[in-house]
């Protein structure tokens, strides 16, 4: 895997297309959620992903403090379905956390992934809530 970390404006057209295609395939089709993925946060965000010869294996975006939450946020965390189960999600999040530095990070996590994020130092910061038909909770890493 080859890792990339770019601002929105430094993405090539092909990279942006691959990122949006993966997000659509997983969040809209696989998880059957109808929502506007183009939420206006991408231009202000950093985009971190692992590329392989087959495309993007894992991706996340880092949203600056004040854009979504008072803290920096990591979101749109995806591991391509064929790459799941090999620890790529942990490596992706470790790299995302490192890219943020020592700042607090708030995430809106799918509730079934609470243990995954807890192992990365996040703690529950809200009750569960519905987000497009999927139970979520806010988590904070101080």
What is this entry, summarized?
With 142 residues, the chain is of the alpha+beta class. The chain contains three helices and eight strands; from the N terminus they run βαβββαβαβββ. Strands 1, 2, 3, 4, 5, 6, 7 and 8 form an eight-stranded mixed beta sheet that branches.
What does this structure look like?
Strands 1, 2, 3, 4, 5, 6, 7 and 8 form an eight-stranded mixed beta sheet that branches. The protein has one domain (2-141): Gcn5-related N-acetyltransferase (GNAT) (Aminopeptidase, 3-Layer(aba) Sandwich). It has helices at residues 13-30, 88-100, 114-118; strands spanning 2-7, 46-52, 55-63, 72-79, 105-110, 123-124, 129-131, 134-141. Strand 2 and strand 3 (55-63) form a beta hairpin. It is of the alpha+beta class. It contains three helices and eight strands, in the order E-H-E-E-E-H-E-H-E-E-E. The radius of gyration is 14 Å and the shape is globular.
Tell me the helix content.
25-40%
Beta-strand percentage? Answer: 25-35%
Cα(first) to Cα(last) distance is: 29 Å
Can you tell me the CATH topology? Answer: Aminopeptidase
> Number of domains in the coordinates?
1
Mean pLDDT: 93
What string, H for helix and E for strand, traces the elements in order?
EHEEEHEHEEE
CATH architecture: 3-Layer(aba) Sandwich
The low-confidence parts are none
* Count of runs of 4 or more consecutive helical residues: 3
* The top level CATH class name: Alpha Beta
Output the CATH homologous superfamily.
Gcn5-related N-acetyltransferase (GNAT)
The quaternary state of the protein chains shown equals single chain
So what's the overall shape?
globular
């Amino acid at each position: 895997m080859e890792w990339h970390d770019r601002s929105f404006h430094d993405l090539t057209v092909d990279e942006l297309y691959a990122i949006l295609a993966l997000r659509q395939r997983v969040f809209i089709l696989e998880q059957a959620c109808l929502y506007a993925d183009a939420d206006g946060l991408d231009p202000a965000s950093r985009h971190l992903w692992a590329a392989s010869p087959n495309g993007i294996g894992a991706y996340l975006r880092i949203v600056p403090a004040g854009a979504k939450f008072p803290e920096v946020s990591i979101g749109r965390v995806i591991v391509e379905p064929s790459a799941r189960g090999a620890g790529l999600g942990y490596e992706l999040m470790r790299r995302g956390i490192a890219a943020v530095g020592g700042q607090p990070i708030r995430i809106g996590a799918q509730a079934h992934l609470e243990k995954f994020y807890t192992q990365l130092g996040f703690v529950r910061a809200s009750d569960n809530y519905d987000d497009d038909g999927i139970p979520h909770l806010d988590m904070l890493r101080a």
